[in-house]
Model the fold of this input.
Amino acid sequence: FAELLLSTEFAELGSEPYGIAVSQDGTSPYVALSRQDAVVRLDARSLVEQERFAVGDERRWIALGEAGKRLFVASAYQGRLSQVDLRTGLVHEIELPDSAGVEDVEA
Done:
């Protein structure tokens, strides 16, 4: 898989591709497209888009979980977290706890 990670090829993904996560077998990079409110799965060899997930809210950070069955996507703003079921393609918003007791810090 090292040869895939050392590629000097470029994928045309639009403005602000941000976070990236790669499947365990190295065949599927996932890229957060923050300005397009989406995450795409690419073919690692051709860099052609294979699948697109609408996640909204300018998502930037992504991580694979549960042996590559789920993708977690966090937003740059609004403090939102989504879970993408990679078997079904369904996107679910994860409820985060309130930040009760945390005071605004003034300079």
